[in-house]
Amino acid sequence: MNKRLIVISLLLILISISCEKDIPLKNGSTFTDEDGPTPYYLEIPDGFTEHRIPESNLLSKEGIALGKMLFYEPLLSRNQNISCGSCHIQENAFTNPKRLSVGTNGEESSMHSMALFNLAWQPYYFWNGREKTLENQALKPVVNPLEMDMTWPEVESRLNNHTEYPKLFLDAFGTEVIDSILVTRAIAQFEYTLVSADSKWDSYLRNEVDLSPLEEKGRLLFVGLQKGTGDCTHCHSEINPNIGDFVMRNNGLDSDVALKSGYSEVTGLSRDVGKFKTPSLRNLAFSAPYMHDGRFESLRDVLDFYSEGVHFNLTVDPLMEFATDGGVDLSEESKDALIAFLLTMSDSNFLTNPEFADPNK
Predict the structure, then answer these.
(1) Same topology between domain 38-196+350-356 and domain 200-345
(2) ∠5-8-9 over CA atoms, to 5°?
(3) Are the beta carbons of 253 and 276 closer than 8 angstroms?
(4) First and final CA of the chain: distance in angstroms?
(5) Helix (H, G, I), strand (E, B), or coil: what is residue 218?
(6) What residue ranges in 202-314 does DSSP mark as E strands?
(7) Which CATH architecture has domain 200-345?
(8) 3-state DSSP assignment of residue 87
């Protein structure tokens, strides 16, 4: 064999080997080039950092579609009457207009349903931050007696005996044997795609629109650091695309005797009593009521609290310097301006995106 043929043969071998290797994705992860799920790359909006999607649960079109079905699947509840989507409603930015959600047995939950969006950029989940991955978070509502009140073996049995789900799991994960790990991976894949980044505020940051005079006044109050202003940016920085740092904080909602355990349930430390996850301020126009227990029905109620209703207590966050004075003492005109500014962060397109909608409707 001459040298030219040898070189060609070696090139063909190298090409063959490279075709069998994994295909790199934009996020640095890989998918194997075999018959299987179709890789899906989650687009990162302008201004956002790299997402936190784990390499153990790479997104695929089949996995996302399956997760969407499971998100709206009542088979996951004891009485087959509620789903994840029952408490996290798209038109309410995937939260619930009720103060406390109602579970499969008609009992109320202990916390207000958190709004679901931009989950791929959050460091932990639940109001008390007890789970660090979205996949682990999805395990808990199924077994909570106040929510779905099921066991995972029962859920697995229902899905394995279903006429459609085994084939869908085969397409998404390469196996027809359904277990809790694959169920929660699929649900998490769908939830990772719930991206909200198309508000007036986003357009303003891209220099596409101007704020109205009232909205601009509200923005200046929002970033203000003196008495009579919002002083909001310590926890809700305007340069953070999620307008919330997700840190566990006690924001002075209650006196010492009324404090709930909060983050201390995770750490076991008394210094963490009353601390809850600082949420994003996106989509406030659609996600009332507010706070971890849904105690405030309107944004006016929230600003009334920060203006004159803050409690100084043993674990109140050091950034809440105004707690000793009961609040920041906002005028009614300032409250109007702040509300106008906060509403610019609402993304109405997110509420009507058909990719997120219940496939059964």
Answers:
(1) yes
(2) 85
(3) no
(4) 66
(5) helix
(6) 248-249, 276-277
(7) Orthogonal Bundle (1.10)
(8) helix
CA angle 95, 96, 101 (to 5 degrees): 120
d(CA 258, CA 260): 6
Neighbours of 9 (CB within 10 A): 11
DSSP letter string over 95-163? B-SSSS-B-TTSPBPSSPPPP-S-GGG-S-BSTT--BSSHHHHTTHHHH-TTTT---HHHHHHHHHTSS
204-261 per-position pLDDT tens digit:
999 999 999 999 999 999 988 555 666 788 899 877 888 999 999 999 999 999 999 9
Q: Tell me the pLDDT tens digit for each residue of 97-136.
A: 999 999 999 999 999 999 999 999 999 999 999 999 999 9
Q: Where are the domains of the chain?
A: 38-196+350-356, 200-345
The C-alpha atoms of residue 100 and residue 240 are separated, in whole angstroms, by 29
Domain covering 38-196+350-356, topology: Cytochrome Bc1 Complex; Chain D, domain 2 (1.10.760)
Q: Tell me which residue has tokens 């990719």.
A: 355
